[in-house]
Amino acid sequence: MATLAQDVGAQDQTAPKPPRVVDPLDVSRPELYRDDTWHEPFRQLRAEAPVYKVEQSGFGTFWSVSTYKPIVEVESLPDIYSSEAGGITIADFIEERSDVRMPMFIAMDRPKHTGQRRTVAPAFTPSEMVRMSDNIRMRTAEILDTLPWGEEFDWVDTVSIELTTQMLAILFDFPWEDRRKLTFWSDWAGDIELVKTEELRLQRLQYMYECGGYFQKLWDQKVGKEPTPDLISMMIHSDAMREMDQMEFLGNLILLIVGGNDTTRNSMTAAAYGLDLFPDERTRLEADPSLIHNTVQEIIRWQTPLAHMRRTATQDTVLEGQEIKQGDKLALWYLSANRDESVFENADKIIVDRPNARRHLAFGHGIHRCVGARLAELQIATLLEEMAKRRMRVNVVGEPERVAACFVHGYRKLPVEISKY
């Protein structure tokens, strides 16, 4: 595997690029997310150019789709707007070399997408949520009971990462003592800024191969064994996925790791950070725990832990009056659609009883809607419920350190103290 990555690097030395003119409406710039200054350019795009062509960016030319209605339209027409033709992010990690492509079902079109999604979907059914709920509650309670009251600590590492990494380890039947490897691989897999330098791109590839090698051993240990309720066993015992080649296996692993880790982790951090930003709403939630399940939807909407998904046009078409050409890249900015004032009144604010919070697009829409959405909702709701039992309030004591990238919309650190209310 290492040799393959070295060979790719030897073939792919890119020439220096001339400095480009920065488009103020290029919302792919990482500093907008690092500094939390993405609100204004998206506000302008929604008002003036919901479908806007960025001619030059760090990721090439692409269309920004920033309002609710056209994103739903694109997601509802998967034969015209492909997930497979160019992948699911505006970063082209692996160019067009078939030797290092990592197919994954979220980046597949029908019919193959249907079969592979159907394989893993049983891990996330309502009955599975019931089966896992006691375990999720027990682990959440254990972590909350170890937190220091009245002392500063990092909520991201101590609570959000630990809870989501434990959940991933259970879903994959992954060795418990090595579970933080999942966090490490997830961070490298989801960081689309790495595409911009050859050295980091190849470093990422190396870590992805390391991830694949580890999981291949887990796969081999389960071949020929009775089915068990974990994702690897489900793949082995399915017609759609048992014959995956190594790159397809690796691609689907990366999808499930990033999908299961980054989204829930960053929503759990947003629950602490966002409710602290809106103390009146936090007080309303503390007074009425029956609002927890709606609040979960509202926090996911407000945070939108994956800022965009990418589609590629398979034919010439028209979207909101703009002529889209075959092969054009479109970035569907869920982050912006979830702040669309025509759908969500006072959208920049967390409102714990917002009547239409469930209409958010943070999980996508249509055939590619997040397969693990129920599990994410269950984990966040359980966290809020266990905090309510302890009358635990999270007080933010410093600015968060944010992810500097336009794909995973999240937090590296959040300094907090906890107190009773």
UniProtKB/TrEMBL annotation:
SUPFAM superfamilies with a match to the protein in the record: Cytochrome P450
Database matches in PROSITE patterns: CYTOCHROME_P450
Keyword terms: Heme, Iron, Metal-binding, Monooxygenase, Oxidoreductase
Region (Disordered): 1-25
Pfam families, per database record: p450
GO molecular function: heme binding; iron ion binding; monooxygenase activity; oxidoreductase activity, acting on paired donors, with incorporation or reduction of molecular oxygen
Family to which the UniProt record says this protein belongs: Belongs to the cytochrome P450 family.
Listed name of the protein: Cytochrome P450
